[in-house]
Fold this sequence. Notes:
The chain is an all-beta fold and about 210 residues long.
Amino acid sequence: MTGIISDNVGRTSGLIKAASGGGGGVWTLIKTLTASGDSDLSFVDGTDDVVLDSTYPIYVFKTINAHPSDDQAAIAFQANAVGGSGYNETITSSIFQANHAEADDGSGLGYHTSYDQAQGTGFQRLYHYVGNDNDQSTSGELWLFGLSSTTYVKHFISRGSMAHAADYAYEYYVAGYFNTTSAIDEIQFAFTAGTIDAGKIKLYGLKDSA
């Protein structure tokens, strides 16, 4: 089974192939935030038409051409549980990356011990050392599962591509969980330095997927 992901102007924005034994579900574009020199982009349930509750078992954030004001910044995210503040939930995560230089003089594949977390409360890096040249940016997607559960921890996975400050193509894979059984209803994105000079983050809900 294959489902087409379309945004609210009818353009195809992606393709999802259902896993064996499961359904593709119905994708709904909930909210688009557009950056213009913003320190962060925050999605808060019940605010400005944002939905982050039991309506959807899976939420997906798509980052499109996020451009940092500062060179070598990393885009990262954190969350608040219901009633919480400070964007400092406890995270355990893993991260690895592949890279290849524009000049074809370097490449690599490896685990990133510097940016994983073991019961950390900092912002989780998704794609780092993004260049701030006029043509450099980062794009990717972040999946979060069962945010409204009050029984289980909250799993996430992310995959993204970026133009590195040293003129490399990088691909990042991140996975982990928020180690809380409280429901999560707020997600914030920010670069680790400077502002989000430009770019969009779109929030989708995937219904009938669990």
